[in-house]
Amino acid sequence: MTKTVGEYLLGAGAVGHLGRVLAGHADSPGDRVLYLVDHFFEDKIRALPLPVKAADMLLYVDTTDEPTTESVDALVATVRAGQPVKAVVGVGGGSTLDTAKAVSNLLTNGGVAADYQGWDLVRVPGVFKVGVPTVSGTGAEASRTCVMMNHGKKLKLGMNSDYTVFDRLVLDPELTASVPANQFFFTGMDTYIHCIESLGGRYRHAFADACSEQALRLCRQVFSGTDMRSAENREKLMVASFLGGSAIGNSYVGVVHPFSAGLSMVLHTHHCVANCIVMNVMDEFYPRETEEFRRMADANGIRIPRGLCRGLSDEQYRALYDATIIHVKPLANALGEGFRDVLSLNKAAEVFQRM
Ligand SMILES: [Fe+2]
To answer: Across residues 322-351, what is the average pLDDT?
Structure first.
Protein backbone atom coordinates (compact mmCIF):
# COMPACT_ATOMS: atom_id res chain seq x y z
CA MET A 1 0.00 0.00 0.00
CA THR A 2 1.31 3.44 -0.76
CA LYS A 3 0.05 6.97 -0.54
CA THR A 4 0.09 9.65 -3.19
CA VAL A 5 -0.89 13.33 -3.24
CA GLY A 6 -4.67 13.65 -2.87
CA GLU A 7 -5.31 16.63 -5.14
CA TYR A 8 -3.30 18.92 -7.33
CA LEU A 9 -3.92 22.03 -9.37
CA LEU A 10 -1.83 22.29 -12.55
CA GLY A 11 -1.35 25.08 -15.04
CA ALA A 12 0.00 28.57 -15.63
CA GLY A 13 -1.41 30.90 -12.96
CA ALA A 14 -2.43 28.05 -10.63
CA VAL A 15 -0.77 29.75 -7.64
CA GLY A 16 -3.44 32.47 -7.88
CA HIS A 17 -5.92 29.85 -6.65
CA LEU A 18 -4.00 28.90 -3.52
CA GLY A 19 -6.72 30.44 -1.32
CA ARG A 20 -9.21 28.00 -2.82
CA VAL A 21 -6.82 25.11 -2.23
CA LEU A 22 -6.65 26.01 1.46
CA ALA A 23 -10.44 26.19 1.68
CA GLY A 24 -11.92 23.99 4.38
CA HIS A 25 -8.61 23.87 6.23
CA ALA A 26 -7.66 27.45 6.92
CA ASP A 27 -10.36 29.80 5.69
CA SER A 28 -11.83 31.20 8.92
CA PRO A 29 -10.48 34.66 9.83
CA GLY A 30 -8.49 33.39 12.83
CA ASP A 31 -7.03 30.34 11.07
CA ARG A 32 -3.32 30.74 10.87
CA VAL A 33 -1.36 29.53 7.87
CA LEU A 34 2.39 29.02 8.02
CA TYR A 35 4.15 29.94 4.78
CA LEU A 36 7.65 28.54 4.42
CA VAL A 37 9.20 30.29 1.44
CA ASP A 38 12.63 29.79 -0.15
CA HIS A 39 14.84 32.74 0.85
CA PHE A 40 15.50 33.30 -2.87
CA PHE A 41 12.12 35.13 -2.88
CA GLU A 42 12.93 37.40 0.07
CA ASP A 43 13.25 40.55 -2.05
CA LYS A 44 10.57 39.56 -4.58
CA ILE A 45 7.85 38.20 -2.32
CA ARG A 46 5.33 40.72 -3.68
CA ALA A 47 5.65 39.12 -7.10
CA LEU A 48 4.20 35.90 -5.66
CA PRO A 49 0.40 36.06 -5.42
CA LEU A 50 0.23 34.34 -2.04
CA PRO A 51 -3.01 34.94 -0.07
CA VAL A 52 -1.13 35.83 3.15
CA LYS A 53 -3.47 37.21 5.87
CA ALA A 54 -2.51 39.36 8.87
CA ALA A 55 -2.80 36.36 11.22
CA ASP A 56 -0.53 34.19 9.07
CA MET A 57 3.15 33.55 9.60
CA LEU A 58 5.68 33.78 6.78
CA LEU A 59 9.17 32.43 7.37
CA TYR A 60 11.99 32.25 4.86
CA VAL A 61 13.86 28.98 4.55
CA ASP A 62 17.60 29.46 4.12
CA THR A 63 18.46 27.04 1.31
CA THR A 64 22.14 27.94 1.10
CA ASP A 65 22.75 24.50 2.56
CA GLU A 66 20.43 21.52 2.38
CA PRO A 67 17.96 21.06 5.26
CA THR A 68 19.38 19.67 8.47
CA THR A 69 17.60 18.26 11.48
CA GLU A 70 18.81 21.40 13.32
CA SER A 71 17.44 23.82 10.71
CA VAL A 72 14.06 22.08 10.84
CA ASP A 73 14.02 22.04 14.65
CA ALA A 74 14.82 25.77 14.76
CA LEU A 75 11.86 26.59 12.48
CA VAL A 76 9.55 24.37 14.51
CA ALA A 77 10.62 26.12 17.74
CA THR A 78 9.77 29.51 16.18
CA VAL A 79 6.34 28.28 15.08
CA ARG A 80 5.58 26.56 18.40
CA ALA A 81 6.28 29.83 20.23
CA GLY A 82 3.20 31.39 18.57
CA GLN A 83 -0.45 30.49 17.99
CA PRO A 84 -1.18 27.06 16.46
CA VAL A 85 -1.22 26.86 12.66
CA LYS A 86 -3.98 25.19 10.60
CA ALA A 87 -1.97 24.67 7.42
CA VAL A 88 1.62 24.70 6.20
CA VAL A 89 2.42 25.95 2.68
CA GLY A 90 5.90 25.26 1.29
CA VAL A 91 6.94 27.52 -1.60
CA GLY A 92 10.28 26.72 -3.19
CA GLY A 93 12.54 23.94 -4.45
CA GLY A 94 13.17 20.52 -2.97
CA SER A 95 14.87 21.84 0.18
CA THR A 96 11.97 24.15 1.02
CA LEU A 97 9.33 21.53 0.20
CA ASP A 98 11.11 18.93 2.34
CA THR A 99 11.42 21.45 5.17
CA ALA A 100 7.68 22.19 4.97
CA LYS A 101 6.84 18.48 5.14
CA ALA A 102 9.11 17.93 8.15
CA VAL A 103 7.78 20.99 10.01
CA SER A 104 4.18 19.92 9.38
CA ASN A 105 4.88 16.46 10.82
CA LEU A 106 6.72 17.78 13.87
CA LEU A 107 3.99 20.27 14.78
CA THR A 108 1.57 17.42 15.55
CA ASN A 109 3.98 14.65 16.53
CA GLY A 110 6.19 16.56 18.98
CA GLY A 111 9.85 15.84 19.63
CA VAL A 112 12.69 16.69 17.27
CA ALA A 113 13.35 15.92 13.61
CA ALA A 114 15.96 13.25 14.30
CA ASP A 115 13.34 11.17 16.15
CA TYR A 116 11.58 10.48 12.86
CA GLN A 117 14.45 9.87 10.44
CA GLY A 118 13.76 6.40 9.13
CA TRP A 119 10.80 4.37 7.94
CA ASP A 120 7.27 4.80 9.31
CA LEU A 121 8.22 6.49 12.57
CA VAL A 122 5.76 9.40 12.26
CA ARG A 123 2.81 8.47 14.52
CA VAL A 124 -0.01 10.83 13.51
CA PRO A 125 -0.82 13.01 10.46
CA GLY A 126 0.96 16.36 10.32
CA VAL A 127 -0.71 19.73 9.86
CA PHE A 128 -2.54 20.05 6.49
CA LYS A 129 0.26 20.70 4.01
CA VAL A 130 0.39 22.24 0.56
CA GLY A 131 3.42 22.15 -1.76
CA VAL A 132 4.10 24.88 -4.31
CA PRO A 133 7.27 23.99 -6.29
CA THR A 134 9.22 26.86 -7.87
CA VAL A 135 11.80 24.67 -9.64
CA SER A 136 11.17 21.24 -11.16
CA GLY A 137 13.01 17.98 -10.79
CA THR A 138 13.53 16.79 -7.24
CA GLY A 139 10.15 15.06 -6.99
CA ALA A 140 9.92 16.38 -3.40
CA GLU A 141 6.39 17.47 -4.25
CA ALA A 142 5.36 13.83 -4.76
CA SER A 143 7.52 11.78 -2.45
CA ARG A 144 6.77 10.31 0.99
CA THR A 145 10.03 11.51 2.44
CA CYS A 146 11.74 14.77 3.41
CA VAL A 147 15.48 14.47 3.31
CA MET A 148 17.51 16.05 6.11
CA MET A 149 21.18 15.98 7.02
CA ASN A 150 21.90 14.80 10.51
CA HIS A 151 25.47 15.95 11.10
CA GLY A 152 25.58 14.42 14.59
CA LYS A 153 24.88 10.95 13.21
CA LYS A 154 26.63 11.64 9.85
CA LEU A 155 23.43 10.62 8.13
CA LYS A 156 21.29 11.93 5.29
CA LEU A 157 17.84 10.49 5.76
CA GLY A 158 14.22 11.58 5.63
CA MET A 159 10.99 10.91 7.48
CA ASN A 160 9.72 8.13 5.21
CA SER A 161 6.04 8.03 6.01
CA ASP A 162 2.61 8.25 4.40
CA TYR A 163 2.08 11.26 6.66
CA THR A 164 4.95 13.08 4.92
CA VAL A 165 3.04 13.23 1.61
CA PHE A 166 1.60 16.66 0.75
CA ASP A 167 -2.20 16.91 1.01
CA ARG A 168 -2.38 19.29 -1.97
CA LEU A 169 -0.06 20.56 -4.69
CA VAL A 170 -0.16 23.73 -6.71
CA LEU A 171 1.85 23.11 -9.88
CA ASP A 172 2.30 26.43 -11.63
CA PRO A 173 4.94 26.43 -14.41
CA GLU A 174 5.01 30.24 -14.37
CA LEU A 175 6.89 29.98 -11.08
CA THR A 176 9.87 28.27 -12.74
CA ALA A 177 10.31 30.91 -15.46
CA SER A 178 13.08 32.77 -13.62
CA VAL A 179 15.20 29.73 -12.69
CA PRO A 180 18.76 30.18 -14.11
CA ALA A 181 19.78 27.71 -16.87
CA ASN A 182 22.31 25.73 -14.81
CA GLN A 183 19.96 25.26 -11.88
CA PHE A 184 17.09 24.43 -14.24
CA PHE A 185 19.18 21.70 -15.88
CA PHE A 186 20.75 20.25 -12.71
CA THR A 187 17.40 20.08 -10.91
CA GLY A 188 15.57 18.72 -13.95
CA MET A 189 18.17 15.98 -14.27
CA ASP A 190 17.24 14.77 -10.78
CA THR A 191 14.05 13.46 -12.41
CA TYR A 192 15.94 11.84 -15.28
CA ILE A 193 18.22 10.13 -12.76
CA HIS A 194 15.37 8.98 -10.48
CA CYS A 195 13.76 7.30 -13.48
CA ILE A 196 16.80 5.58 -14.97
CA GLU A 197 17.72 4.33 -11.49
CA SER A 198 14.20 3.04 -10.86
CA LEU A 199 14.02 1.30 -14.25
CA GLY A 200 17.53 -0.13 -13.81
CA GLY A 201 16.75 -1.68 -10.44
CA ARG A 202 15.74 -5.14 -9.26
CA TYR A 203 12.70 -4.05 -7.24
CA ARG A 204 10.43 -3.15 -10.14
CA HIS A 205 6.78 -2.25 -9.99
CA ALA A 206 4.39 -1.66 -12.92
CA PHE A 207 3.21 1.67 -11.50
CA ALA A 208 6.76 2.93 -10.90
CA ASP A 209 7.80 1.74 -14.37
CA ALA A 210 4.87 3.55 -15.99
CA CYS A 211 5.67 6.80 -14.16
CA SER A 212 9.38 6.52 -14.96
CA GLU A 213 8.88 5.75 -18.64
CA GLN A 214 6.56 8.69 -19.16
CA ALA A 215 8.75 11.05 -17.10
CA LEU A 216 11.79 10.03 -19.16
CA ARG A 217 9.90 10.72 -22.38
CA LEU A 218 9.10 14.21 -21.12
CA CYS A 219 12.71 14.81 -19.97
CA ARG A 220 14.01 13.78 -23.40
CA GLN A 221 11.67 16.30 -25.04
CA VAL A 222 12.53 19.09 -22.59
CA PHE A 223 16.30 18.62 -22.84
CA SER A 224 16.53 17.77 -26.55
CA GLY A 225 18.31 21.03 -27.26
CA THR A 226 15.49 23.39 -28.17
CA ASP A 227 14.70 25.98 -25.49
CA MET A 228 14.50 23.87 -22.31
CA ARG A 229 12.87 26.77 -20.46
CA SER A 230 10.03 27.48 -22.91
CA ALA A 231 6.56 27.69 -21.35
CA GLU A 232 5.65 24.30 -22.81
CA ASN A 233 8.84 22.65 -21.56
CA ARG A 234 8.45 24.14 -18.09
CA GLU A 235 5.00 22.58 -17.82
CA LYS A 236 6.29 19.24 -19.14
CA LEU A 237 9.16 19.20 -16.66
CA MET A 238 6.84 20.04 -13.79
CA VAL A 239 4.74 16.98 -14.65
CA ALA A 240 7.85 14.83 -15.22
CA SER A 241 9.16 15.79 -11.78
CA PHE A 242 5.88 14.78 -10.17
CA LEU A 243 5.83 11.46 -12.04
CA GLY A 244 9.49 10.78 -11.24
CA GLY A 245 8.86 11.48 -7.56
CA SER A 246 5.86 9.14 -7.67
CA ALA A 247 8.01 6.45 -9.30
CA ILE A 248 10.63 6.41 -6.56
CA GLY A 249 7.88 6.40 -3.95
CA ASN A 250 7.04 2.98 -5.36
CA SER A 251 10.52 1.68 -6.03
CA TYR A 252 14.05 2.74 -5.16
CA VAL A 253 16.83 4.79 -6.64
CA GLY A 254 20.11 3.15 -7.67
CA VAL A 255 23.85 3.86 -7.68
CA VAL A 256 23.79 7.60 -8.45
CA HIS A 257 21.93 8.79 -5.36
CA PRO A 258 24.13 6.99 -2.80
CA PHE A 259 27.29 8.49 -4.36
CA SER A 260 25.55 11.85 -4.55
CA ALA A 261 24.58 11.61 -0.87
CA GLY A 262 28.27 10.95 -0.09
CA LEU A 263 29.24 14.18 -1.87
CA SER A 264 26.53 16.11 -0.03
CA MET A 265 27.45 14.71 3.35
CA VAL A 266 31.23 15.11 3.12
CA LEU A 267 31.76 17.98 0.65
CA HIS A 268 28.40 19.75 1.17
CA THR A 269 27.59 19.63 -2.54
CA HIS A 270 23.91 20.30 -3.24
CA HIS A 271 21.78 17.30 -4.20
CA CYS A 272 21.05 18.13 -7.84
CA VAL A 273 24.50 19.29 -8.92
CA ALA A 274 26.00 16.37 -6.97
CA ASN A 275 23.76 13.97 -8.92
CA CYS A 276 24.98 15.43 -12.21
CA ILE A 277 28.63 15.19 -11.14
CA VAL A 278 28.06 11.50 -10.32
CA MET A 279 25.97 10.80 -13.45
CA ASN A 280 28.82 12.15 -15.57
CA VAL A 281 31.06 9.22 -14.48
CA MET A 282 28.54 6.36 -14.37
CA ASP A 283 29.75 4.68 -17.60
CA GLU A 284 30.17 1.24 -16.03
CA PHE A 285 26.85 1.26 -14.15
CA TYR A 286 24.56 3.07 -16.63
CA PRO A 287 26.50 3.22 -19.94
CA ARG A 288 23.73 4.25 -22.35
CA GLU A 289 22.20 6.72 -19.93
CA THR A 290 25.56 8.31 -19.10
CA GLU A 291 26.09 9.01 -22.79
CA GLU A 292 22.58 10.36 -23.15
CA PHE A 293 23.05 12.55 -20.08
CA ARG A 294 26.22 14.07 -21.56
CA ARG A 295 24.44 14.68 -24.88
CA MET A 296 21.63 16.51 -23.09
CA ALA A 297 24.11 18.65 -21.12
CA ASP A 298 25.97 19.54 -24.35
CA ALA A 299 22.75 20.27 -26.24
CA ASN A 300 21.78 22.82 -23.58
CA GLY A 301 25.25 24.34 -23.20
CA ILE A 302 25.63 23.09 -19.61
CA ARG A 303 29.05 22.27 -18.20
CA ILE A 304 29.16 19.65 -15.44
CA PRO A 305 31.71 20.55 -12.73
CA ARG A 306 34.76 18.27 -12.54
CA GLY A 307 37.75 17.75 -10.29
CA LEU A 308 35.67 17.81 -7.12
CA CYS A 309 37.53 14.94 -5.43
CA ARG A 310 41.01 15.85 -6.59
CA GLY A 311 43.55 15.88 -3.79
CA LEU A 312 41.31 14.51 -1.04
CA SER A 313 42.90 12.66 1.88
CA ASP A 314 42.46 8.95 2.62
CA GLU A 315 40.21 9.92 5.54
CA GLN A 316 38.00 11.95 3.22
CA TYR A 317 37.69 9.02 0.80
CA ARG A 318 36.80 6.80 3.73
CA ALA A 319 34.13 9.30 4.83
CA LEU A 320 32.78 9.50 1.26
CA TYR A 321 32.64 5.71 1.12
CA ASP A 322 30.89 5.41 4.49
CA ALA A 323 28.28 8.02 3.51
CA THR A 324 27.67 6.13 0.24
CA ILE A 325 27.58 2.48 1.34
CA ILE A 326 25.10 3.28 4.13
CA HIS A 327 22.35 3.49 1.46
CA VAL A 328 21.61 -0.20 1.56
CA LYS A 329 18.22 -0.26 -0.20
CA PRO A 330 19.16 1.67 -3.35
CA LEU A 331 22.50 -0.12 -3.67
CA ALA A 332 20.87 -3.55 -3.26
CA ASN A 333 18.24 -2.44 -5.78
CA ALA A 334 20.92 -1.58 -8.33
CA LEU A 335 23.64 -4.14 -7.63
CA GLY A 336 21.99 -6.96 -5.70
CA GLU A 337 22.41 -8.07 -2.10
CA GLY A 338 26.15 -8.51 -2.68
CA PHE A 339 26.61 -4.82 -3.45
CA ARG A 340 29.44 -4.55 -0.91
CA ASP A 341 31.52 -6.97 -3.01
CA VAL A 342 30.98 -4.84 -6.13
CA LEU A 343 31.48 -1.55 -4.37
CA SER A 344 34.61 -1.96 -2.24
CA LEU A 345 36.34 1.03 -0.69
CA ASN A 346 38.92 0.99 -3.51
CA LYS A 347 36.28 0.73 -6.22
CA ALA A 348 34.25 3.61 -4.76
CA ALA A 349 37.42 5.73 -4.38
CA GLU A 350 38.16 5.15 -8.10
CA VAL A 351 34.68 6.37 -9.00
CA PHE A 352 35.03 9.45 -6.78
CA GLN A 353 38.45 10.20 -8.33
CA ARG A 354 36.90 10.31 -11.81
CA MET A 355 34.47 13.05 -10.74
FE1 LIG B 1 17.00 12.99 -6.18
So the answer is: 95
Q: Do the strands 128-133 and 155-160 form a parallel or antiparallel pair, or are they unpaired?
A: unpaired
* Predicted pLDDT at 214: 98
Burial status of residue 288 (CB atoms within 10 A of its CB: 0-12, 13-18, 19 or more)? exposed
* Cβ-count burial 91-113 (b if 16+ within 10 Å, e if not): bbbbbbbbbbbbbbbbbebeeeb
User: Which strands sit side by side in the sheet containing 147-150, from one edge to the other?
Assistant: 118-119, 155-160, 147-150
CA of 94 to the centre of ligand 1 (A): 9
110 CA from centroid of ligand 1 (Å): 28
Rounded CA gap, 312 and 300, in Å? Answer: 31
pTM of the complete model: 0.94
Residues across the chain: 355
Cα 140 to ligand 1 centroid, rounded to whole Å: 8
CA of 194 to the centre of ligand 1 (A): 6
Q: What is the pLDDT confidence band of residue 244, given thresholds at 50, 70 and 90?
A: very high
Ligand 1: centre distance to CA 244 (Å)? 9
Q: Which of 141, 84, 83, 78 is nearest to 108 (CA)?
A: 84
Q: Is residue 307 exposed (0-12), middle (13-18) or buried (19+ Cβ within 10 Å)?
A: exposed
- Mean per-residue pLDDT over the chain, rounded: 95
Query: In this structure, are residues 185 and 25 in contact, taking their beta carbons and an 8 Å threshold?
Result: no
Ligand 1 centre to CA of 82 (Å) is 34
- DSSP character at residue 93: S
- Interval between CA 190 and ligand 1 midpoint (Å): 5
